[in-house]
Every structure is written in C-alpha cells, then in structure tokens.
C-alpha cells in the first residue's frame, strides 16, 4: 500500500515543513516534500489538517500498560502493552523486567520471543531490558528486595546464553563483580546502564570506562552529592552531567521529575543525550486505584493516585502510569524546551541509544515508516508502524491554529 500524509507540519528533527507531504510505500518512507506532489492512482491519502507529523516515539523503558506487565510472561501481555502504547504514539519500545528469580526472567524472555513474531498491531519491540537484579539494596525503590543480589558470572552467563534478545541491562556499578559484568555486556553488544545505585564519581568513572553508557531514570534511585566522614562526593547525578557522552533517561510524567530538573537535564545534556521515557507499569491507560507492580503471581501491591503509582505506605513512587503523549505534553507545557528538541528526545536520541538510528527515529527517505500525527494539544490522531495505520482518531477539527503553537528551537529558527 502507498500512503500519503498531506497538509502536515513535518518535524524532521531539525526543521518544520509546513504544509508538507510524506509518502510511504512498502513499509518505508519513499519521499519527503515541502509541497504537494502528483500521486499515482490508488494512493491512500490522509489529510493532517496542519497537525504535526513526527517520527514515531521510541520508549527505552516500559514495564507495562492496559492492565498487563511484561513480567506476567505471556505473549498476550506483551501484545496488549504494545497496543496500548501504540495508541499513544509509541511505535517502538523496549520491554523491561524487574528484579526476579532467574526462572522468572527465562519465562519472560520466552514470552518475548513468541510475542515478537505475533506483534502486528502494536509498538515494535527493540529487544529486552533486564532491570536488575544486580542493584544496591538501599536504592531499590519499588524493586522487590527478595531478589536483589550481586552480579554472578555463572548466573549472567547462563542468562546471556539463554536468549539473543537482551538489548540492554541495568545494574549498580559499585557492586562486587559489576565492572567485569559491564565489560561482558559490551563484548556482547548489549547496552549497559547504571541504575538503583549508591555509586560515587569514581565508581561511575570506572563503569563508564567499562562500557556503562546510559543512566537509567536519572534522579530516581541513585546518589546525588553525598557527604561521607564530612567530605562531599559527587554522586551518579553529577557524574552523568560531567561525562559529556553519557546518555540519560528522564521520566517526564510530570510527577517523578519537577520542571526545573527536566529543564536542568536538558540544559546540561542537551536533546542529543537525554531520552524521555515512560517507565510505565501495568496501570498505564487505566483509571486510578489498586494495582500490581510486576508479575500478577508475585508482584508488589501499589496504589495509583495523583497520576503516579505509589507503594501502599505512600513513602515512595512505584512506577509511572504515563504514555508517550503525556511525556510530550508535560515537557512542552511545563518547561522551555522547544518542540523540535522535545520530539528529538522521543525519537532520534533513543533511536541512537538503541543502535537503530539507521532505520528509525527520523523522517527521511529510506527510513522505516514509523510516524505519528498529533495536534496542538498533544493528542494522537494517527499512528503508523511499518507503513500500516494501527491507530486513527479524528479529533483535531476545530482546534485553534494558535493553540500550543510551540516555538521553533533557537538553533533552527
């Protein structure tokens, strides 16, 4: 099928083409035009009505949604989660685990393989993210302490041999064995990330040299400036800022990070090294109320209120319930981050981090036809994955042209 999207404001990620047209054929972007071109007979046309047309959003860190969690370890759970997030603009995501027993990880990896081949209507899977179980107990957050442990070569080698679909793995780099673990991940081409950690600057430096190139959900469950025996030490947060090439994730749900911290991370890391993530758990897309973080079999009870999941004692967050459209709206309405940069943090930057920038994350001829159309209220109107329309909702009629008419990035105005 050949599809043409007309009358859109195309976000390329470096400029806006008003009234532009994008043509899709055989799952790829065939052409980008700044004006209407003649189209062959039989082309399906979609009039964007001056709404924004952007690359599909890429979420590096997702646990669940629509009442399901990847740790439920069923193909159905994977497909339902992928469908929910596609309706909110995510065209590719990285399914994420929690701390668990080895056998639970194996079951989840098995379910991933079955779901990957059956996933025709949801966000595409970019490989599994194992979040844990090699974490600092003091920084566990909502991770189950029963399963937290140090890296064990016998264990992680068995897991690595079990599945070729592990794309990233998050761990605390100060733990015994974490540095050789990072080196091993680098040898395997797996993205090593720092998470749930008590590390200080020297720990992060050693980790960075060993291959840890990403900080998982910056500010959450990690050290900032720390005083020990009267002396101050830079923590993971400051270290992430000091290493220019280190990438960071930001949970931009409007709850985990207040606007000044989103603005600060953007100011220091820039849109090229900061990716917006949902970190969504199973309650994403559902009304507030009780829920479960992790598997239905042995997960942690949580309560969803105030737009976030909390532990029952309300002393800590237990995951986000955001979708990608909420991330975009939060950034654009609560910070000074311009539209093109916000979109970049949801598209080309995560694509580069995951090693898929040669085919995803930007609007250009030859790229995968993964794209979204959204209005000036950040409402999703159309989601296209691999050239197929997987979601469409015509709600942009009547929205004033000036509503949320976001400024150009100062770099590209």
Write out key terms for the chains shown.
alpha/beta, Urease, subunit C, domain 1, TIM Barrel, 413 residues, 2 domains, 10 helices, eight-stranded mixed β-sheet, 29% strand
Explain how this protein is built.
The protein has 413 residues and is an alpha/beta fold. The chain folds into 2 domains: 2-55 and 361-392, Urease, subunit C, domain 1 (Roll), CATH 2.30.40.10; 57-353, TIM Barrel. The chain is built from 10 helices and 25 strands. The chain has helices at 75-86, 102-118, 153-162, 178-187, 201-210, 236-242, 259-269, 324-334, 339-346, 348-353, and strands spanning 2-11, 16-25, 28-33, 44-47, 52-55, 57-62, 64-65, 68-69, 90-95, 124-125, 128-131, 166-171, 191-194, 212-215, 226-228, 231-233, 247-251, 274-277, 289-293, 300-305, 308-310, 317-320, 371-374, 380-385, 388-392. α1 crosses α2 (102-118) and α8 (324-334) packs antiparallel against α9 (339-346). Mean pLDDT is 93; it is low at 397-413.
């Amino acid at each position: 099928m050949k599809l043409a999207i007309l009358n859109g404001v195309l976000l390329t990620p470096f400029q806006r083409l008003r009234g532009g047209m994008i043509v899709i054929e055989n799952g790829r972007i065939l052409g980008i035009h700044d004006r209407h071109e003649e189209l062959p007979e039989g082309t399906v046309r979609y009039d964007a009505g001056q709404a924004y047309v952007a690359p599909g959003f890429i979420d590096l860190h997702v646990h669940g949604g629509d009442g399901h969690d990847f740790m439920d370890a069923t193909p159905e759970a994977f497909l339902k989660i992928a469908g929910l997030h596609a309706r909110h603009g995510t065209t590719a995501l990285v399914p994420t685990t929690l701390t668990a027993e080895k056998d639970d990880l194996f079951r989840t990896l098995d379910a991933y393989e079955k779901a990957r081949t059956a996933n025709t209507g949801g966000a595409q899977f970019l490989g599994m993210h194992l979040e844990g179980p090699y974490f600092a107990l003091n920084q566990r957050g909502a991770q189950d302490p029963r399963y937290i442990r140090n890296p064990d070569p016998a264990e992680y080698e068995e897991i690595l041999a079990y599945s070729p679909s592990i794309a990233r793995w998050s761990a605390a780099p100060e733990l015994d064995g974490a540095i050789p673990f990072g080196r091993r991940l680098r040898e395997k081409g797996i993205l090593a990330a720092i998470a749930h950690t008590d590390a200080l600057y020297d720990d992060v430096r050693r980790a960075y040299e060993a291959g840890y190139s990403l900080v998982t959900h910056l500010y959450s469950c990690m050290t900032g400036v720390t005083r020990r025996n009267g002396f101050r030490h830079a923590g993971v947060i400051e270290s992430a800022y000091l290493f220019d090439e280190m990438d960071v994730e930001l949970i931009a749900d409007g709850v985990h990070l207040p606007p000044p911290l989103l603005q600060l991370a953007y100011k220091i890391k820039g849109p090229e090294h900061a990716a917006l993530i949902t970190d969504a758990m199973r309650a994403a897309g559902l009304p507030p109320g009780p829920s479960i973080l992790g598997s239905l079999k042995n997960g942690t009870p949580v309560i969803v209120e105030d737009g976030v999941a909390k532990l029952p004692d309300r002393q800590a967050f237990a995951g986000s319930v955001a979708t990608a459209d909420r991330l975009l709206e939060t950034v654009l309405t609560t910070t000074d981050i311009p539209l093109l940069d916000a979109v970049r943090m949801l598209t080309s930057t995560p694509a580069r981090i995951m090693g898929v920038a040669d085919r995803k994350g930007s609007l250009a001829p030859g790229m995968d036809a993964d794209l979204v159309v959204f209005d000036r209220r950040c409402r999703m109107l159309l989601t296209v994955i691999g050239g197929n329309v997987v979601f469409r909702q015509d709600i942009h009629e009547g929205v004033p042209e000036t509503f949320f008419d976001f400024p150009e990035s100062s770099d590209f105005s």
